Amino acid sequence: MAIGILGGTFDPVHNAHLAVAQLAQRQLGLDSVLFLPVGNPPHKRARASRWARMEMVRLAVAPAGFLCSDLEIARPGTTYTVETLRALRERDARAEFVYIIGTDTLYQLPLWRNFEEVKTLTRFAVVRRVGEDVAHARAFAASRGVRADFIEIDAPPISSTDVRLRVQRAQSISGLLPDNVRMYIYETGQYAPAADMMERLQGALPARRMEHTLGVIDTAVSLAPRYGLRERQAYLAAALHDCAKGMNIDQMFSLTGAGPEWRQYPQTLHAWAGEILAESEYNVFDPEVLSAIRKHTTASSEMSALDMLIYVADAIEPGRKAYPGLHALRMLAARDLAAAARQCAESSYQYNKSAGRAVHPDTLKFLGIEKEEGA
Predict the structure, then answer these.
(1) Quick one: pLDDT at residue 139?
(2) How far is the CA of 272 from the CAs of 139, 266, 302, 374, in angstroms?
């Protein structure tokens, strides 16, 4: 009996995974394909829990007639393929196992734990895209003594990363994975920001800071459509931009691992701490949102439109105490976001200089200032 093995984090499993299994089974004449979600992989971090990923795989493979196993999910500690193959061999010594991998993984095989043993326990099915030249890959496999079949796969261009980000951004994931997996994701809140985010923020922040946060949300969400930005991203970045403001400065230094040079501009450190908290405590991992949180106090030499939106919204929200140029800045933000961001940075620079504070290097770079006067 020939059994294909398709391992992975499956975070989440999607239609491309199923397509690969179907095509591999057909091209290699496999009796079945066994899906093996990894528990604690040595080189990847899974977003969903191991048991949530296992359940999504179970839901996906049953209608397709494939098998799945919790062998790696149930194993404590780091997951290594050699241990899995040993266990499968003990269960069925007569079976021939064919491990399905991509060409990129083929080149990593010599780095696998107990590689010399691994290649005695399984053949490999190396998946290549239609038209991909695999002459070098064939030569590499032969030189390492890897028993490999090369199969051509025309699977849909879907990635788990894209599915996760679509959930974060409230975009449709219909057609990317089986309907029962899609419903499981929505019903259990997989990959979504913390459902009680606003309640937790209210408990973590002083009342006035929470009022400011609500003002930044209103401003960012109202301006987002003017600049073709997603309101969902604007909302998340605005909501969490000050999420670390409930911490004291020592806690921020501990969380970020910031060096002593940050003592010169401690008023900016909550942005870095907020970026970390947004991901670890509120399950927001959209890199564009995290970037906007990180840059909202200092700006940066490279600013996306979302970065600029949060930077500006923080400065012009309705609850801001009046300061010279505020009304003009609000008017400017409605027609030219980049110009408004620059004006915010210039105002911040002048304010900090007049107060005798050091200006963060990122602000100086954004303004094109090589070095502070007197530095």
Answers:
(1) 94
(2) 47, 11, 16, 27
